[in-house]
Amino acid sequence: xxxxxxxxxxxxxxxxxxxxxxxxxxxxxxxxxxxxxxxxxxxxxxxxxxxxxxxxxxxxxxxxxxxxxxxxxxxxxxxxxxxxxxxxxxxxxxxxxxxxxxxxxxxxxxxxxx
Length: 114
Description:
With 114 residues, the chain is mainly beta.
């Protein structure tokens, strides 16, 4: 398997995911926890580059973070809580992307099904 990501970077990604939730005035507690991640290798079908994917599964929420060979990351984690600003909507997930020097992110909302 490709080398696992630096734990400090993994912890930073987890903190950034929680931070995106916090910015909304919501909380998912201490999730995701870096130490609870499982890892798999994934090969990009186009570039043939191998990346490491961290998964959080089996708990109340699902998440994954793809760590690419060039140092980039893309992470997504379920929130599944009512939107504090949009009636009839909920925060589905938060996403974080970037590298160890700068992580950016956003929340993804969805409307409740009628």
